[in-house]
Amino acid sequence: MAQSIQRAINLIRLVAEHPLTLSEAADVLGVHKSTALRILQTLEAARFVRKTGAGTYVFGSGLIELSELALGSMDLRQFASAHLRVLQRQTGHTVHLAQLAGDEIVYVDKVDSPAFDAVKLPSRIGRAVSIYASAVGKVILAHLSQEERDRLLSHVTFERYTSTTFADRESLDAELTRVAERGWAIDDGEHDAYVMCVAAPIRDSRGQVIAAVSLTAIEVIASLDQLKEKLPLLLETSALISQELGFTPESSPAPSAS
Amino acid sequence: MAQSIQRAINLIRLVAEHPLTLSEAADVLGVHKSTALRILQTLEAARFVRKTGAGTYVFGSGLIELSELALGSMDLRQFASAHLRVLQRQTGHTVHLAQLAGDEIVYVDKVDSPAFDAVKLPSRIGRAVSIYASAVGKVILAHLSQEERDRLLSHVTFERYTSTTFADRESLDAELTRVAERGWAIDDGEHDAYVMCVAAPIRDSRGQVIAAVSLTAIEVIASLDQLKEKLPLLLETSALISQELGFTPESSPAPSAS
DNA sequence: AGCTACATTGCAATATACGCAACGCAAGGA
DNA sequence: TCCTTGCGTTGCGTATATTGCAATGTAGCT
C-alpha cells in the first residue's frame, strides 16, 4: 500500500527488538544497503532510531516521547502511579487507569499482579476501551455533563457483546443514573463474559471527572461480590489521586446516598 | 531524504498531539487527500494510528507497545516503579532508573518532583546516558566483569565535558575501582558542570548488576554533600528493588568498607 | 601494508507513490 | 422528496521520488 513506509515500520519493529547493523537491516528487509541506509537516516532524523558508537542502530527516544505526548497529561500518570501500585498490592487484582482522550477512553496505566503465574489481562496501555461496556467507561460517562455524554455517544453503534451488555441508549442511561448516584460503577461481564470490574472516578482541580481507576479480575479468580469488598480501598485510591490533582472534596456536591 | 517516510512521521506527530480527520491531515501535509489516506492506512495497519467511530484518526497503541518492548524488561520497571516514587517523596530530588541495554545505558524511568515550580531536568526516558560521565553509568560499569567493561568501553571516544570528567581510560578505571569498593557512585558535574548525582546499583536474581537508581539535583538546589546525606535512602531503595528481582544479599560478597 | 567488511555517495532507470477526477455516501436544507 | 454539500474512497496515467548498482571512503584485522 505504501511500500517505503511499510519498510520503515518493519525496520522500527526490528530495531525495537534488538540492535541492528545497516547490512543486517538490508538483508532482513530484502533491499539494497543504500535503501536501508536512507530509511534509517530518515528515522534517525526523527529520533525514532539512534546510531550507537558501535555503528548499530537502536531504538530512539523519539518514539517514547511521542507515546508520552499522546498519553497526554503525564501529570495524571505521575500523580497516580504510586497509588495504583499500592492498590494492586492491597487487593492482589489488576489495576487500570483510564482517561478520557478526545472522543474515547484509553488506558494510560496498568499494574498487573507481579506473580509469575498470575493471569495477564489482554488490556494494553494506549488501547481504547469500550465506552459503554466497561466499568471505567460507564463511571466517566456517568459524571459528564449531558452535552458531553451525548457527544461521546453520538458516534457509538451499540453492540450486545454479552447477555449483560447495556446495548441501547435507554438502558445505558438508566445504568448511568445509578452509577452517578452511588459514585462507582461495575462491569458484570458486559464486554467479556468472564471479566469483572469495579471502577471509581478521578476528578481534577475543577471537580471535573477526567479519568477512572478500576480493579479487574476474571471470574475464576474473584467474583464480582469479592471485588466489591475492595470498594473502600478503590474509593480511597481514587480520592487520593483526585487530591493530588488539586481536587478539594468540599468544593463539589457530595454523591447522594442511595 | 525519504519523502513519504518523512510525511508519515509528520502525520504520526500530528496525530499524537490531537485527533485528525483525513482532510485536515492532507491540508497540513500539503498533499492530496488520496495521498494522506494511503499513508494513514499504512500506519493504521501497523496500529500506529487508529480510526475512531467518528472518522478521525487518533494515536494507536502500536507505538506504545513498541516503546514498552524496547524498554525491555517491563518487569524491572513494574517492580521498581513504586520504590522510585517513594524515594522521590523522601528526598524531594529527581529519581532516575537506568538500565544496561545492549552497549548502552538508557533511562527507563524518571520521577520528577511533582511541584510545579520544580526544575525539570532535560533527561528523558529512552535516552542514552554517557557511560563514563554519569553516576549511573559508572556504578553499572564498576560492577561488570572486566570483559564486559572492556566491551562497553571499546567503542567509546572519551570527551572532557567538564573539568571533573574522567576523560581517559586510566583515570576512569581508578574511579571505577573506588566505586566498586564502596558500592555507589557520584557524578560531580562530570557531564554538565552544575548537575550532581549519586547512584546505586540494582542486581537481578543472579547477583548481576543490570541497572541503577540515581538521585539528581542541580547544584543551586542541593550540593553533592547534601545529596550524599540521602545515600542511606538511595541504598535502601536499590536494595529493595534488587530483592523484588529475586536478589538475595547473602549470595554475593559484601562490598568492602573503604 | 594489504585485506576484508562495512558504511556512504552519485547517478541513471523505473518502480512507486502521487495528484487528478470520478464515484459513493451520509447529513442537512429547501 | 430531492438537491446540495462535504466528506472519504477508488482507478488510473504520469512524473517524481526511491531504488539498485557501482565506485568510493573508512576502519578493523591478519
What is the secondary structure topology, with strand pairs?
The structure is a homodimer of 258-residue chains.
Chain A (H helix, E strand, L loop, with lengths): L2 H15 L4 H8 L3 H13 L3 E3 L5 E3 L1 H10 L3 H18 L2 E8 L2 E8 L16 E2 L5 H8 L3 H9 L14 H14 L2 E4 L6 E9 L5 E10 L5 H5 L2 H14 L14
Antiparallel strand pairs in A: 1-2, 3-4, 3-8, 4-5, 6-7, 7-8
The first copy, chain A, binds a DNA duplex (30 and 30 nucleotides) through helix 3.
Structure description:
The structure is a homodimer of 258-residue chains. By secondary structure, chain A is an alpha+beta fold. The first copy, chain A, folds into 2 domains: 3-67, Arc Repressor Mutant, subunit A (Orthogonal Bundle); 71-251, Beta-Lactamase. Chain A is built from 10 helices and 8 strands. Chain A has helices at residues 3-17, 22-29, 33-45, 61-70, 74-91, 135-142, 146-154, 169-182, 224-228, 231-244; strands spanning 49-51, 57-59, 94-101, 104-111, 128-129, 185-188, 195-203, 209-218. In chain A, helix 2 (22-29) crosses helix 3 (33-45) and helix 5 runs antiparallel to helix 10 (231-244). The relative contact order of chain A is 0.11. Mean pLDDT of chain A is 87; it is low at 252-258. At the A-B interface, helix 1, helix 3, helix 4 and helix 5 of A face helix 1, helix 3, helix 4 and helix 5 of B. Chain A binds a DNA duplex (30 and 30 nucleotides) through residues 2-4, 21-23, 31-35, 37-38, 55.
